[in-house]
Amino acid sequence: MNIDLSGKVALVTGAAQGIGAAVARTLAAAGAAVIVTDLEARSTVAAAVLAGMGDSGRRAEFAVLDVSAEQQWQSVMQQVERRHGGLDILVNNAGVVLVKPVEQVSLEEMRWITRINMEGVFLGVKHALPLMKPRAAANPAGASIINISSAMGIKGYPFGSLYSMTKGAIRLFSKSVALEFAQLKYNIRVNSVHPGLVDTAMVDFETDQLSQLGAMGASTPQEMRQAFENYNPMGRLGTPQELANAVLFLASDLSSFITGSEMTVDGGETAR
Fold it and tell me: What pLDDT shows up at residue 51?
């Protein structure tokens, strides 16, 4: 069954590369008007994402957004309201990882990762609501917020405790606001998606950092990647498109009775 998002407006954070770029392309290909957002420093990369969308790229536009900056969220949402009149889909994807033994983590590093991974999701939900509530009321299936967490938001992550902490927070924040919006009759679904190890630049960074720490007996990034693949029940890393497919379902009206859920897309990793 083809999913049709024609007439819907979506905003994706951290969409210049990796999972976010795949999500933006997939939502646009399904017919949605997509606001592709990312940091200004990588806006040229985001432009390349738009160019790579082909015909569906005509339904996409780029906006600078530091998810930890409330004023930027306000500015972007004002832009969305002016251009599109509202918002149907919010994908809070932007995030960073910190790989370091907890005893070496500084307070500023802890604050840095929480500003982006936790505060960014909170600000997105808060400032998207005024644009989503009228659209949700007009659609029996409602509107959809999808917060990208991680498999490490469900299970522990040695040397990545701060990352795991923030992703676990996203999981329970999503469940809590899903219940809140249901009680308030907003008709806005909120779900979290939990990727396992996905073949992206972030995982490349993690394999490099973890191999330097000798994690899982690996001494090189190549050995670390192989250890990741061997650990996964399906014997491989995921792809950004596989994550985008899950997001597409949650963004669509097909998921109209799904809220407060956590969708793991991890090759069975959290089933262990």
Answer: 77
